[in-house]
Amino acid sequence: MKSIKVSLAQLTPKLGDKSHNLQLLEKAIAQAAEQKSNMIVFPELFLTGYAIGHQVPYLAETKNGPSLTKVKELCKTFSIYTVVGFAEIDNGFYYISSALIDDQGELRGVYRKTHLFDREKEFFTPGTDIHVFPTSLGKIGIMICFDVEFPELARTLKIKGAELIAITNANMEPYERHHHIYAKSRAMENEIPVVICNRLGEEGSLKFCGDSMVIDTQGIALLSMEKEEGVKTADLPLLTTLDPKLGYISKRRQDLYLASSKEQFV
């Protein structure tokens, strides 16, 4: 059985203050390294805070910008993989993105949120690609917050060969129950481990609800942080013996789904 140590950085970033948030990130990475972690996952838009609104043009960076350059240096120094959320600019478009950086400080890839929630669409463009990133830890797929509520995305990552799904989150009240159930469901229905890292704190009327979890292939939470702030680590099996009576992927009826997808719904 292959397993890795995964850390959750359930923290409270400061809105609009990338310098402060990078300090939080550095401290968290150091803590995870002390806990012998292989990978640490941060919340959605952690480097800027979530409700940046009209400040997006001033806070967004490219994938080679100064903030991610600093994160790369930290990953190399502490020999740890990191998944971190940031506001990305590319060719004049803004995205809610998550970067996967390896333990050598190399950017393995960037995922752009494909399902935008509520007012996010006023400031950001939805992503159009679903990636699985090969790494020395295994094949990693990434989703961001509202994405977890769409089972098609996690299923597509599984079909593409993902062995682990990492989710950066900025989930808020009153939707804690949604993500608590959906994250476990995405793991169970795809027989794949899920790591979901949410944040705490408040921004305006938004109150973020935590509940970060490390979930195994059976939908069991191996680590659940609830409302606790800090960095915690869990052993997560990646390749486990699956129940042959289930075999959800192999037993799909694609002939039915493809026909249904062509129907028009109103």
From TrEMBL:
Q: Does the keyword Hydrolase apply?
A: yes
Q: Where is the CN hydrolase domain?
A: 4-238
Sorted alphabetically, the keyword list is: Hydrolase
Q: Name one Pfam family in it.
A: CN_hydrolase
Q: Does the keyword Ribosomal protein apply?
A: no
- The protein's superkingdom reads Bacteria
PANTHER family per the UniProt record, alphabetical: CARBON-NITROGEN FAMILY, PUTATIVE (AFU_ORTHOLOGUE AFUA_5G02350)-RELATED (PTHR43674:SF16), NITRILASE C965.09-RELATED (PTHR43674)
> Under what name is this protein listed?
Amidohydrolase
- Origin species, per record, is Siminovitchia thermophila
